[in-house]
Amino acid sequence: MGNRGDKKKAASAGRAWTAPLHLNLYTVCWLSFMILTKKHGTKPLLVNGRLELNESVFEDTTVQRDSFLYVRGNLTGDLTIEPGSHVVIEGWVEGKVINRGGRLVINNSGLVDLIAADGPPLVEASGILKINLSAILLNWTALRRRTVAECAAVLKADAFSCGIDQITTALAKSGCRTFFVSNLAEARRVRAAARDATIYVLNGFYPGTGPAFAEINSQPVISSLIDISEWDVFVASSRWQGGFALNIDTGTSRLGISVDEAVAFASRVHSSNPGITLLMSTLESAAAADHARQIKLFQDVRRLYGRIPGSLTNPSDALLSPEAHFDLFQLGAALFGVNPTPGTKNPMQQVIELQARIVMVQNLEPGQAVYKSTGTRKKATRVALVSLSYADGYPRPGDAFDVSRKAIVNGKLCPIAGGPSMDLLAVDVSDLPDLTARRGDMITLLGGEITIDDLAIAAHSTEREVLANLGRGFRRIYHLG
Question: Whole-prediction pTM value?
Fold first, then answer.
């Protein structure tokens, strides 16, 4: 290391305020330079050896091979980790993380209270669903850096089966101020976790639900003129000042008032209390030309509504061109690791790990059929039966002969062998050494080498469907990575 290593040790001492009180002039000037460099981010930090810091790091940082960095604060620049290195961050990583073979632990001290578990006890659960809160927040940070619009979180289907309570709290702590949910029951849970958030209910306004919207201060996404009339009657009778999001159908034949209705309704913005807090629509078509047409149509309609914020969402592409972001950019499944750019490498961190228990190991002779299989094997086969299947939301195979679904047993990929069963999976462990797979062992069905994309492809389904179907029979464990 030479002088560089000595300087880094001195930097650590200066940051921890543990340096001797009688400093020579050179040391004082050098420490002042280091502090200014940190604040203004004018010089990248290179770590070669061991470095512990008692404050945040503001510049881009590279942790070189076989080195160690411990930061008792946040790291706001980009972080590069070379092979064999170990990095521990007690706060946040705001920039891009490039991990070339090291180990990164983000403790998120502000979220330690969210480390928890819920659901049935482990001995009673059909499986374990591990949810990495740090990965969700890294995904949140990566996506919101791509836009100047406010970023809202779409937490439909119990936050895509990850648990709306914990996820709301984590996102609210990271700065999320607006949430979209499916129904009023979910809105209540978001309100309990985020007292000051704006909450939109996608399923809209139904007769008799007005008092509930007022009670929890949430807003319906209204998609028909009849719903607007009923909303106006409720607001007039209750004198509640809450508003609603107006949903416009820009060509998807989905929920929303027509463009002609939206144009005719625009004069409402000149009233004393128009009640419209958000103008929104949905892009559905995958065709770029149709996207451009819908974006232009939404822009034209939005001009009629003055300063009312706009939001244009597309559930299959979270990284459209900035012109489609408008004022409020809705982030959904990508937060949970689903690829927002289909057809390219997934830039998102994996969030979910699903494990299940082996309940029996069978040794089958040549000619015996694997459980729920229509054929027989020509050679001896060893099969592990696992206590989880489609009743728990694990996807069925796309066809009867599909062998692309895998499980990780003791670190090795093994094929899922049998056909669909309600509550059991058969995993072929014939290629593993004897006693590697044993009754009571946990195997991994999602996580590590097995991604959500892999399961969706094997099931001829979508990543969102795979996530949303994961049942509540699991023991959920929330951790910080």
Answer: 0.77
